[in-house]
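Follow-up to my earlier ticket, as requested here are the two runs.
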Amino acid sequence: MSSDDMKKRAAEAALGYVEDDIIIGVGTGSTVNYFIDALSRIKHRIEGAVPSSEATAQRLRACKIPVLDLNAAGPLPLYVDGADEINCYLQMIKGGGGALTREKIVAAASERFVCIADQSKLVDVLGVFPLPIEVIPMARSYVGRELLKRGGQPVLRDNFITDNGNLILDVYNLVIMEPLKLEAELNNIAGVVTVGLFAQRPADVLLLGTVDGIRTIQG
């Protein structure tokens, strides 16, 4: 079974968390794209969706799912998104697609966060996947030096501007033993917009697509 098949399994399983007449927060990425495709089949049951990126908004509109603004929608009962890495505590690294800031905002505004992923994303220790950090352009070099002091190897993501007009530094060689502590520390570096560590607001449920079916892990 391919990783795409496992992603589809997880995406389909997330439909079971969609209640009637709600507004759903929708994340960004390849697994979420499968969820949007599945959601389009039951779009008549929901009021609409709040996207975490312009790319997701475009896909939702293409599926004729109403796209709503978070400020107008208010608190969301459900957020569905993927992960680049996730541990057994449902803490994650996210931002491989560069949408980490908006993802973090929508996740924070949601009562329940359902993460969908294939089995390769579940790890014992976070950090093999480079940690994305969104930075204000004028702070790029300063933030990079601060990350070097902490043992990371920051690399500017080439030819990439976030939906917020900022840059992404992908930080390699981090072994993240204390995700909560590191998230708070890095967020306090001047010029950092958002760190792609989702430890303060982890997922509530992980739907993991595996060769044997869906494995559900509760937070």
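Run two:
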Amino acid sequence: MNTSYFITGIGTDVGKTIIAAIITEALEADYWKPVQAGDLENSDTHKVKNLISNSKSFFHNNSFSLNHPMSPHAAAKIDGVKITTEKIKRPKTANDLVIEGAGGLLVPLSEKELIIDIIQPEDKIILVSRNYLGSINHTLLSLEALKTRGLKCFGIIFNGDKNEETEDVILKISGVKLLGRIENEPYFDKNVIREYAEEFRTNLGS
């Protein structure tokens, strides 16, 4: 039976796309970004595709491709589109599926629905956290938001410069397991992604 992994973050620009590429490569999974806002010529799907080495992964089309790099609800309004979770149909695949959210959990898709509404109870939810002043609060708030919906976080991945105090307190307070960490690499290419994929593979199956 295939498994779906939902990649979300504590905010924007915390490294979800790089981590989605690593997990897609580690599992030779399919990849799907339900909502892409802006950068349609170099979308997150393009970026992940360019970082993958295996030939098994399939890249599914966005349910919504919006022209402006802003919150999906605002970008949809400009494009004259109405986003509803009913229109966000999961692709059918026999392969594992990596799903990348947009921004954080409470990013609005419309005036009624949020990114968190796309998540299903069976998803293995992976929260990406990047260390900055305030990231403890943002990480714990994200975990609380999941808990409020009855959703369990499968694990946390820290991205960027290590901060032991920050990471320790998040893990101790939340009780969520650490899946791994990504260093502040000078660049990411297929080789770097493949190396991280090897490291992460074991933790992802547990």
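The only thing I checked on run two: DSSP finds six helices and nine strands in the chain. Let me know what else you need.
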